[in-house]
Structures are given as C-alpha cells and as structure tokens.
Amino acid sequence: MKRLFIDSSVLFSAAYSPRGNARNIILMAARKELTAVISKLVIDETSRNMLGKAPEKVHLLETIIDNIPFEFTRPTKREVLAAAKHAELKDAPIVAAAKRAKVDLLVTLDKKLLLGKPKLAKYIRAEIVSPKEAVKLLES
User: Fold this and answer.
1) Residue 8 and residue 23: Cα distance in Å, rounded?
2) Whole-prediction pTM
C-alpha cells in the first residue's frame, strides 16, 4: 500500500471542496487504499488557514481529521534543522516529517517551494507531486 504525506494545502483543499483530487485522496485513505500520513503541524496550519479563509468549512475539516485513519509522524528538532538545509525554513518541518515517515509521495499544492524540486525529492526519497499526479500514479 502506498504511503502519502499530505501537506496542509491538500488537507485544506479536501475540506474546502466536495470534488477534486485532494478530496479523492482523502476518500481513498478512508477506504484504506493508501496510508495517509500527516503531522500535528499540518493539522494546526490547516485549521488556522481554514478559520481565516473559510470558517464555514471548519466542521468539514474536523470531520476529516476525526474520521480518516491518518498515521501521524513527528520529526525531531534535529531532523527539521537538517531538512532546513534542503528546503525553505517554513517548509522544513513538512519535509522532515515526510522523510521521517518514509513515504512514497509527498502530496502538495505548493508550486513555489515544493513541487518541481528534484533535489528535495531525492533528499526525502519520495516523489513530490500534486494531488492530480498522485491520483494518476495511484490509479495506474
């Protein structure tokens, strides 16, 4: 079974929109077709963003968090500092968490700092893909 680290942009999108590939990934996790890995930081960041941008959708985010069998990972301070040598400081905890969890894919919508970074993918030993790319890979 594939292991996917879900970053906050994907979790936000899954809660915000009833359709789309982010939601499809969450539904696949609910059906135990994949292992969805997140960290407390992902939940905290997504909750903060949801409260600020779409407070009417907070209950959907809470439903996802309460009902999806997420695997949680928690990188150490040393792992985050090591990741900061390969990624922007704000993304280092996400990169460290994905690396620690030994995932197959890091799924993100962050085109600026994460997607299209082959050196970063090599560092975490996982492909960094969009939800659309993840679904395509999972269905092939």
Assistant:
1) 13
2) 0.95
